Amino acid sequence: MTAQKHGSGSSGTIKPDRKIVKLYLAAIGANIISLSLGTAIGWLSPFLPLLISTDSPLDQGPVTDVQATWIASLLCIGAFGGTLLFGWSAEKFGRKASLLATAVPLICFWGCVAFGTTVEVLYVARLLAGLGAAGVFLLVPMYITEIAEDRIRGTLGSFFILFLNIGTLVSFVMGSYLSYHTTAYILFTLPIVFLALFLQFPETPQYLIRRNRVRDAESSLKYLRGYTSTPDHLEMLRSEMDGLLVQVSGEKDSTEQNSRISLADFAPPSARKALLIGLVLVSLNQLSGCFALINYTAQIFADAGSDLDPNMAAIVVGAIQIIGSYGSTIIVDRCPRKHLYIVSSFFAAIGLFAMGTHGYLKSQHVDVSAINWIPVASLSFVIFIASVGLLPLTFVILSEILPPKVRGLGGSICTAFLWMISFLVVKYFPVMVELIGLHGCMWVFSAVCLSAGLFNAIFIPETRGRSIEQIIHAMENNIKS
């Protein structure tokens, strides 16, 4: 059978043929650190009830409610600072080296959990987890975008949330069946495995070209695409290299190849608009409440009066989240991004509204024993549908709409803003529950999801199947198709 022509396929289906197997492997290798980060994020849900109980593994005994909110939210503070660090590192040392460096704070996080005996050590642990999270959230989508072919960029980009969710479920399961310390000992190995495996994959061709390392960029592209020395493959390699060279030369004059990137580079309308859209997207992503719900999953089910054991309910939600994320990897390059994001947002709004309504009826002392399945069903539905579109597409779209020259700085700004909003949501979610009730919080999250769908429908161009140059052109010409 002959190889398919680059970027095309007669049947329209996307299969990892021999020409791009290494591209899939590179994406999977990069996302092992996403898996590791997912375990660090998911750690809180099964172990927070333990930490606040009389069986707390800490020497000082149970942590207070205030200390618990700081344990939950300090990850976001660490991530805010880490975004600036890894944004600078991505431009200075490259995507690959910076991505490898994200393993260090995650190793330290599990070390603190395994051997720490005070709440102060857990504070440090969560700050370190946030530092690693910042790098992973910024660099994995960036790396994937810069190595992927246009026809499968969405599929590979969706791996990020999929692996993150798998890691979260791993923590939910291990936290339910293994001890506090045993879980930490085992999960300590994941970032080490990432370091060992990801070393073999190359730097992105785009970054190498910007550093005037054209020969290295050609070798990287040849490896990632699986090109051989046959005339057809050499022609495809030359054609793609020419396209990358033109793209980079269009970003800046040859005399500015090593110039410092600054806010002035956001002066072009396409860059300015992309940054504003990115800031709104990450805000909606966090204000939708999904990250807060994951952090407090077990506690939410306990407060909602569900008949299912809280930790078991969290496992169910985590499994459904993975199914949704996997569904996203299958359909993201087959369906228009806009349609997928909008439908996902609207249905998530419906699920959150239903959960809020159940909570409101219960708060009014209405007998809801016959419908106590609604909290689990609604939250499971919300996490599933959000994992198909709203959550993963935020990062896919963000990495696609930012022009290559400012992708590092723009991605850093958006990711830092994401973590700032995330801190506020996670830290003050328990406070908001006290003020307006769990049902009120669900209704607010529902309104945000509805707003996210409307925002996408009005302001964001379709990116599926388009090259980066075409997306930038669409931004410049205000195309909303």
UniProtKB/TrEMBL annotation:
- Tell me where in or outside the cell this protein is found: Cell membrane
Q: Which residues form the Major facilitator superfamily (MFS) profile domain?
A: 22-464
What Pfam family does this protein match (any one)? Sugar_tr
Q: Which UniProt keywords apply?
A: Cell membrane, Membrane, Sugar transport, Transmembrane, Transmembrane helix, Transport
What Gene3D superfamilies has UniProt attached to this entry? MFS general substrate transporter like domains
Q: What is its main location?
A: membrane
Q: Name one GO biological process term.
A: transmembrane transport
Membrane topology, as annotated: Multi-pass membrane protein
Q: Name one GO cellular component term.
A: membrane
Superkingdom of the organism of origin: Eukaryota
Signal peptide positions on this chain: none
Q: Which InterPro entries match?
A: MFS_dom, MFS_ERD6/Tret1-like, MFS_sugar_transport-like, MFS_trans_sf, MFS_Trehalose_Transporter
Annotated GO molecular function terms are:
sugar transmembrane transporter activity; transmembrane transporter activity
The protein, known as:
Major facilitator superfamily (MFS) profile domain-containing protein
Please tell me the species this chain comes from. Answer: Anopheles gambiae
